[in-house]
Design brief:
The structure holds 2 protein chains of 2 kinds.
Chain A lengths: L1 H89 L3 H24 L10 H29 L4 H49 L4 H41 L2 H5 L1
Helix pairs in contact in A: 1-2, 1-3, 4-5
Chain B lengths: L1 H64 L2
The chains are: A mainly alpha, B mainly alpha.
Chain lengths: 262, 67
């Protein structure tokens, strides 16, 4: 009887624990699937764009070859015409001239027919449609491989505390790099201020000496104004960025802080 | 027999509790990772904007140096 009591209690416990866990699992899984689906969609869009770009390039290349072929036919046509024109000019009798003219017409006709029968496509030119298909197949294969990789990656990543901590550390390192970059930009701002000041002094001196026309002075002052505007914009962005980075640093430092104390 | 059943039940309880801990940890980590990704994305955006503005300024300054 006592044993039965224990079994009943444990069964109740199992039910109580497993029910909320299942709900949580479903929620987590849904979130993960949505996230990865978005990633795959982005990859597929990129692959599609690449395929279109490549197909466009191949078509363009084919068109260029076709244009070249057209030019080649025209060249040949003109060369034959020129050649016979000389011969006709040198012909002694009328009969000879007529004969040469007939020959020329035959040759020109054969060149035209030959070009028409090829339908504007010269032998040796690549089959552009075929190439486009190949590119499309290649892109589809790459897309499939990317999807597989993303799938594998999703399965591989376990949401352990260690993983979270390594992610946080990585983010902190990246933030430190960005802060160093921000410092460089602040130095750039200082240098820019000095360069603008120097340019202003040069323009003032030129205006006072009267060597340069008023229009040129005005144009130079406009350039200085543009530079000043860009400088102010950058300075504002750097200040905003510094504040944002400080906030982000605090957020990242707060993560896993409780564990550090233990 | 009584001791064995009690021991088994205790084992079961410990198993369930540890399982629940793992799930809670996973949920917590997922939340933290999402937060980190949001922070990184924002930082990247800011950094790109600043880089672009700095590049524009450099271009204008080069013109100024020649006057």
């Amino acid at each position: 009887m006592k044993n039965l009591k224990y079994i009943l209690v444990s069964a109740l416990l199992v039910f109580a624990v497993s029910a909320p866990l299942s709900a949580q699992d479903i929620g987590n899984a849904k979130g993960k699937v949505e996230k990865k689906a978005n990633e795959v969609k982005q990859d597929s869009d990129k692959a599609k764009k690449d395929a279109e770009d490549r197909a466009e390039k191949v078509k363009k290349h084919g068109q260029e070859i076709s244009d070249d072929a057209k030019g080649e036919v025209e060249e040949k046509y003109n060369a034959v015409k020129k050649q016979y024109k000389d011969k006709i000019a040198k012909a002694a009798t009328d009969e000879e001239k007529k004969e040469l003219e007939a020959e020329m017409m035959d040759e020109l006709r054969s060149i035209k027919e030959s070009a028409n029968s090829k339908g504007g496509v010269v032998k040796g030119a690549p089959d552009t449609d075929g190439t486009v298909e190949e590119v499309k197949k290649e892109v589809a294969k790459t897309k499939e491989e990317t999807t597989e990789k993303v799938k594998e990656k999703t399965e591989e990543v376990k949401m352990t505390k260690e993983y979270g901590m390594s992610k946080a550390k990585e983010a902190k390192d990246n933030l430190a790099k960005r802060e160093a970059n921000l410092k460089n930009k602040m130095e750039l701002i200082d240098r820019a201020k000095a360069r603008i000041r120097a340019a202003t002094d040069r323009v003032d001196a030129a205006a006072q000496s009267g060597d340069v026309s008023d229009d040129v002075i005005a144009a130079r002052r406009a350039k200085i104004a543009i530079a000043q505007e860009k400088l102010d914009k950058l300075e504002a962005s750097v200040n905003a960025g510094r504040t944002a980075y400080d906030e982000q640093k605090a957020t990242l430092s707060g993560m896993y802080k409780e564990d550090k104390g233990n | 027999m009584k001791i064995v059943s009690r021991f088994l039940l205790t084992l079961l309880l410990v198993g369930f509790i540890s399982c629940r801990d793992t799930k809670a940890e996973e949920a917590e980590t997922q939340k933290v990772v999402d937060e980190i990704e949001a922070v990184e994305s924002e930082a990247k955006e800011i950094s790109e904007k600043i880089d672009q503005e700095a590049e524009e300024l450099e271009g204008v300054l080069e013109e100024l140096d020649s006057i």
